[in-house]
Write a structure and sequence with these properties.
It contains five helices and five strands; from the N terminus they run E-E-E-H-H-E-H-E-H-H. The chain is α/β, with parallel strands linked by helices. The chain has a single domain, classed as Probable inorganic polyphosphate/atp-NAD kinase, domain 1 (Rossmann fold), CATH 3.40.50.
């Protein structure tokens, strides 16, 4: 099994010829009882046929990685992020598109307290 990966640390927008990568895959290699990782080469060949390009690939390693990896990819300017995995992976990737309400509420409260407003 050959798994091509790019760690989230040092993730950069790659250049292919004159075009930048716009598609990224967030892959959970343990999904489908591990067959996603075991059959990755075959799956990746089909993915390349579908997208006609070499998308950026990141693999999750633990719970919550899908959310943080998605946020990193969005910050890097990726336009299309695709979750490959089960319900949990899809949920985490979807959550990566949103800032948590809790953070927004805390930020708003701290601004209001600093201004003496309630």
């Amino acid at each position: 099994m050959t798994i091509r990966t790019t760690a989230s640390v040092g993730l950069k927008k790659k250049k292919l010829g004159k075009k930048y990568w716009t598609t990224a895959l967030v892959v959970n290699p343990t999904s489908a009882s591990g067959s996603t990782g075991k059959d990755w080469d075959t799956r990746f060949t089909k993915i390349k046929q579908t997208f006609g390009e070499n998308p950026q690939i990141v693999f999750t390693k633990k719970s919550g990685d899908g959310t943080s990896l998605t946020r990193d990819l969005l910050k890097k300017g990726f336009k299309r992020i695709i979750a490959i995995g089960g319900d949990g992976t899809i949920n985490e990737v979807a959550n990566g598109f949103f800032v948590s309400l809790d953070k927004q509420v805390r930020k708003a409260n701290s601004r209001n307290q600093n201004k003496g407003q309630f």
